[in-house]
Amino acid sequence: MAARAPQADARLLVSVPGVHCAGCISTIERDMARMAGVRSARLNLTLKRLSVDAGPGVSAADVIDRLDQLGYEAHELDPGTLSVTETQRQGRELLMRLGVSGFAMMNIMLLSVSVWAGAEGVTRDMFHLISALIAIPTVAFAGQPFFRSAARALAAGRLNMDAPISLALILTLLISLYETFQSGAHAYFEAAVMLTFFLLGGRYLDFRARAMARSAAQELAALEVPRAVRLEDGAEAEVSIADLRPGNLVLVRPGGRVPVDGEVVAGRSELDRSLLTGETLPVVTAAGAQVSAGEVNLTGPLTVRVTAAGRDSSLHRMADLVAAAESARTRYTTLADRAARAYAPTIPLLSLGAFAAWMWISGGDMRLSVNIAIATLIITCPCALGLAVPAVVTAASGRLFRKGLLIKDGTALERLAEVDTVVFDKTGTLTMGTPVPDNLDAHPAQALSVALALAEGSSHPLARALAKALHARGVAPADVADLGEAPGYGVQGTWQGKPVKLGRAGWVGATHAATTGAYLSLGQATHSFTFTDALRPGADDVVAALRAQGKKVWLLSGDVAPAVEAMAQRLGIDDWEAGALPQDKATKVAALQEAGHTVLMVGDGLNDTVALSAADVSISPASALDAARAASDMVLLGRDIAPVADAVRMAKLSTRRIRENFWQSGTYNAIFVPVALLGYCTPLFAALIMSASSITVSLNALRLK
C-alpha cells in the first residue's frame, strides 16, 4: 500500500452513525485524545459527527481506522460543505437581543413606578430622561431585526409586518422624547421597550420552530467521498476527487464507499446499494458491472474505471435534484404571511388618518394628534398576529415531541393539515431494515453450530443477522478451521476434515428458492436459512389510523415485487409499486401532486431523499440517513411509527388554533381600535392592551398541551 502523504494541520469531520449515548461520547473522545497527532476531538451526538483537530500526518482514514478498532462504523465528511450555518448565528443574535430588551424593560418599569406614584416637575423629568437613556439604545439595538426587515421591504416597494412595527417603535420614542423635553406628564419609553420585547419573543419562538432544519442537499454533498485511491502504473496514490478524470482507475477496498460512477474492470465483491435503491440485499458485482458513487463495497477489492466523478456523479446529481425540490417547497407561504400582506398596509394608513382627523378636530393640537396616532399604531401592531403561528407550532411541537416526533420546520403543521395522501417507503421505514432468520427451529443443533462458526467469519448482512440470532439462542460455534470468504458467494472452511460452506444457493450446491436466504452445505446435506424483515412497531396501527382518517396510503419501495406485495397485503395497503429508483419515487410524488393530492412522504434512505424534498411534507425515522433526516420536516425519535398518524391529527387541530388566534386578534382590533381613534387610549395603555392580546394568543396555543 502506498504511503500516505503528510498533510498540514486540519479539522477532520467524520460521521459516526452508531453513536447513541453519553457513554459513546466519553469512549470516543477519550480514545481520540490518546491518539498521536490529535490535539482535540469533540463528538456531536445530535449530528452523530466527530470533529477532530489533527496535526500533520493524521488523516481521516487514520481516525476511521481508530474508530473501527473501537467498534464504530465511520465515514469521512467534507468539512467544506459543513461550515457553521447562518441560521445558528441568527438564533444567538435573537436570543441576545431578547435578553437585552427584557432587562431594559424591567429597569424602565421600575423607574416608571415613581412617575405613576405621583412624581412631578424636575423629579418626573429626570426619571423620564433616565428612561430615555436606557430605551433609545435598547430599541436601536434590539429592534434591528424589525428595522432591517422593514428597510428591505420598503426598498423593494412593498410593506410587510415589520414596517408598521418599526414605525410604531420610532414614533413612540420620538413623541416620548418630545414629551420629556417639554416637561410633559407622560412619556412612553416603557411601551416602546415592552413592544420590542414581546415581538422579539414571538420572533424567537418562530426561530426555534425552524432551528432544526438543515439543507439536505448540503448533507448529500457531504456524503461524497472527498478522496480516492488512484492506480497509476500499478502504484497507489491518494488523490482528491476533483483530480479524477474519466478513464482513470481507482481502487475501492472492502468496507469503503465507491467514490465515483464507473465500471468494474477487476475484482469481485458485493455492493450495498440500499442507500441509493432501497434494495435490502447486497448485489454481486464483477468485471463489467456498473457502480455508482455512494454505494458501499462489502467483501472484496474492486478496480473501477471512472466514468463520472465529483459534480458529474449520480450522487451529486441527486443532491442537485434535492436542492431544486427544497427551493420549490420554500415558496410555500404561511398563514401569518398571507394575513400580514392584507393587514400590514392598513396599519400606517389608519394611524395617519387618525392624526389628520384629530388635527382637524382639535384645531391643530399637534401633541394630542400625535399621541392618538401613536396609540392607534401600537394597538394595531401585529404582535398577536406574529405570535399566532409560532406559539401554536411551539405548543404542538412540545406535545408531539413527548409522543416521539420532532418538528423541524415551522410551516410543516400547516402543510400536514392539508395532506390527503401518505406515501411510505418499506425497508427501514415500515420495517426495521434488519433481516431476521425465521426458521432456525427447522435445523439440527449441529448445523446451527457450524453455521454460526461460518457466519462469524463473514461481513455479509445475512451472515451477521444469522450470527446474532444464533448467539441469542445460546448456540456455541463449532470448531471450523481454514475460514475464508469468497467475495460475492459466501464463506467456507473445514469441519471435522470435511469442507463446509455458507452462502448463495448455487455456490453451495442447493436448489434455488424463491425466498431470501443463506444456505449451508454440511457434508451431503444442505440447510436453508430464510429471513424476514421485522415490522417497525406501530406499522399496523399507523396504516389503520390513516385510513380511518380518510387518507389514501401508498407503498413505494426499491425492493423486489414479491417482498413489496407481501408487505402491502400484510398492512392492508391497496396501492404499491416495487423496484422504484430515487427518481421514480420523486416522479410518483409529483404525479400525485399534479392529480390534485397533497402528499406526505415517509422514508429513511438516500433513495428517498429526493421524494422527501419533493413532497408537500415529509417525515423520516431518527435511524435514517443524515441526508434523509435533513430533507424531512419531521423526525421520528423512537422506533414506533404510530406517531405519524398522531401528527396528521394534531396538524388539523393546530391549524384550527392558528385560525382562532387570527379571529381573536381581529376581534381585539375591532374592539380597541375605535377606543384609540376616539382618543381614550394613551400609547402606554395601547402597549399594555397589545401585550394582553399576545398573552391571550399564547394561552390559546397552550390548549394544545
Written overview of the protein:
This protein is an alpha+beta fold. Among the domains are: about 1-75, Alpha-Beta Plaits (2-Layer Sandwich); about 225-310, Calcium-transporting ATPase, cytoplasmic transduction domain A (Distorted Sandwich), CATH 2.70.150.10; about 420-595, Calcium-transporting ATPase, cytoplasmic domain N, CATH 3.40.1110.10. Helix content is about 50%, strand content about 20%. The chain is built from 26 helices and 26 strands. It has a 7-stranded mixed beta sheet with strand order 14-26-25-24-15-22-23, sandwiched between helices. A hairpin with a 4-residue loop joins strand 2 (about 40-45) and strand 3 (about 50-55). Helix 4 runs antiparallel to helix 6. The model is unreliable at about 1-10, about 80-85, about 210-215 and about 325-335 (pLDDT under 50).
Which helices and strands appear, and what pairs or packs with what?
Layout: E1 10-15, H1 22-33, E2 38-44, E3 49-54, H2 60-70, E4 75-77, H3 86-116, H4 121-142, H5 144-155, H6 162-181, H7 189-210, H8 216-223, E5 227-232, E6 235-240, E7 249-252, E8 261-266, E9 269-272, H9 274-277, E10 283-285, E11 290-291, E12 296-297, E13 302-308, H10 314-329, H11 335-343, H12 346-361, H13 366-379, H14 383-402, E14 405-407, H15 412-416, E15 421-424, H16 426-430, E16 431-437, H17 445-455, H18 461-472, E17 481-486, E18 490-495, E19 498-503, H19 505-508, E20 517-522, E21 525-535, H20 539-548, E22 552-556, H21 561-571, E23 575-577, H22 582-594, E24 599-602, H23 609-614, E25 617-621, H24 626-631, E26 634-636, H25 643-677, H26 683-702
Parallel strand pairs: 15-22, 15-24, 22-23, 24-25, 25-26
Antiparallel strand pairs: 1-3, 1-4, 2-3, 5-6, 5-7, 7-13, 8-11, 8-13, 9-10, 9-12, 14-26, 16-21, 17-18, 18-19, 19-20, 20-21
Helix pairs in contact: 3-4, 3-7, 4-6, 4-7, 5-6, 6-7, 6-13, 7-14, 7-26, 8-10, 11-14, 12-13, 13-25, 13-26, 14-25, 14-26, 17-18, 20-25, 25-26
